[in-house]
Amino acid sequence: MKQLIECVPNFSEGRDMSIIKQITDQIETVEGVKLLDVDPGKATNRTVVTFVGTPEAVVDAAYLAIQKASELIDMSKHQGEHPRMGATDVCPFIPIANITMEECVQYTQRLAKRVGENLNIPIFLYESSASDSRWKNLANVRAGEYEKMESKLKQNDFNPDYGPSVFNPTAGVTAIGARDFLIAYNINLNTTSTRRANSIAFDVREAGRVKREGDPITGKIVTDEKGEPLREPGACKSVKGIGWFIEEYGIAQVSMNLTDINVSPLHEVFDACCKSANQRGLRVTGSELVGLVPLNVMLDAGKYFLQKQQRSTGISEAEIIKIAVKTMGLDELTPFDPQKKIIEYLLQADVKTPLLDMTLPAFANETASESPAPGGGSISAYVGALGVSLGTMVANLSAHKRGWDSRWESFSVYAGQGQGIKRKLLALVDEDTNSFNGIMEAFRLPKSTEQEKSLRTEAIQAATKYAVEVPLLVMKTALGSMQMIRSMAEIGNPNSITDAGVGALCARTAVHGAFLNVKINLAGLKDKEYVQQKLKEADAVLEQAKQQELEILQIVEDKI
Q1: No. of H helices and E strands in the chain?
Q2: Most buried one in 23, 101, 131, 527, CB count within 10 A?
Q3: By C-alpha distance, which of 253, 212, 216, 260 is closest to 236?
Q4: What is the pTM of this model?
Q5: 547 by DSSP, 3-state: which?
């Protein structure tokens, strides 16, 4: 499987879009990478760029971007709210798929060596790539920012890993390293006071604040036996934060990096900021995600807020994300488009789902056309999706039924199960047509020579086996929905009992329809042992579906 690395370089330019475009154009010249996001900030004068690709391609694209930034950005003239030390301030590599952190470290070393030697930029390796434990924390490298770098590089204990130990006045200093996924997150406040925003940051961030005697602002700093200041830790581990004023928006923000979302999820950090703000007579008015965010972060947040409202979490992904966006005010300053901000959605943007992308009339018209696909297999999968959707609807209606408030959580679990099954069946709508097209492509292979004939036969057999496995999966998935549908018929909202019944009819139809596809595709296979095994599997699933349908319909009839 393809190895994928995400690269999120931060460039010290957020106002001149022509410069940003020239940098990102360099990234897009490299085959094997996909530019996902470009997020400029005027007040910070900084742009966060996100791209993903295979390791070698990411190294090449990152090098070209750093090179172009060093040509176009003059750090001696740079001003911005965000701490910075170089034209390319930081360039992190994040393992995304089928690659370890250790492998990412090796690729960062390769990039750092290339940049340092060819571009004469001092390079420090940070986070997991750090050769010096002091540089693991980026703040230790960047302390004093660009203005202090020249004097720091003259010190014996501040030596870059690659490149010269001589200050580069235009390009500055760059940090390159491998790290876990980091979320850059800003909380908007109803104040213009940087000091008050900092107070909230100190309440929340892991490092907290320096401990003082008496007055928390002017009191004497408390130290340990070595004379080092003691600290009062903040509420959230793996969170770094400061307060600042954003002139562009006319508000103060708490600007944070969430370095481990498994330890401190986005929604918990948001709530911690709200609590601190309220205690200080302030209010959180919204928030801002800089760059991209993983899908599970948004879904976890949406479900968290739904549970606080005692509402079912078994609703569509789009609805869950909407709850997260509105609760945290992620669209207060700029629009929040999930298709452009969630990394999985961006990576899936090139995946074609022609049937699922159609309107209902268009789907019906395409099915009714003279084309052999979509056919019974795709329709079976879609009917199954409609059936489990009806069962899910009953679960959600039951979760919100007046007088059933104490049962909302159990119905939410059923609805969540239904949503999962629905997603699988919808994916199989297009996949069944893809499997049919695979057979057609195999039949079109050349057959002039004996070798070509042999390869063509093998391809046809392999494609046909896949065309058996897809509808067989439709059968098993649709059968799996029937237990949930049955539960809704038994204990769900009695006003929706017939909806559960129709759901059962759809599920059985999906199973039986997919069964017919399994049988006709098995007929074209030479592997008799495989044929017998799959026919036996399919027969068993069909019989179970028929029995489940009878029992569910009897429950419905008895309750009507």
Answers
A1: 17, 13
A2: 23
A3: 260
A4: 0.80
A5: helix
251-280 per-position pLDDT tens digit: 999 999 999 898 999 999 999 999 999 999
Radius of gyration of the chain (CA): 29
Architecture of domain 183-294+303-342: 2-Layer Sandwich (3.30)
Distance of CA 393 to the CA centre of its chain: 26
What are 45-87's pLDDT values in tens digits? 999 999 999 999 999 999 999 999 999 999 999 999 899 999 9
Q: List the catalytic residues.
A: 82, 432
How is domain 4-178 classified at the architecture level of CATH?
A: 2-Layer Sandwich (3.30)
Q: Measure the CA–CA gap between 408 and 395, rounded to whole angstroms.
A: 9
- The residues pairing with 247 across neighbouring beta strands, listed in sequence order, are none
Backbone angles phi, psi at 240, to 5 degrees: -110, 145
Cβ atoms of residues 190 and 287 within 8 Å: no
Where does the chain hold its CATH 3.30.70.670 domain(s)?
A: 183-294+303-342
CATH 1.20.120.680 domain range(s) in the chain: 360-559
CA distance 444 to 458: 13
Class of domain 360-559: mainly alpha
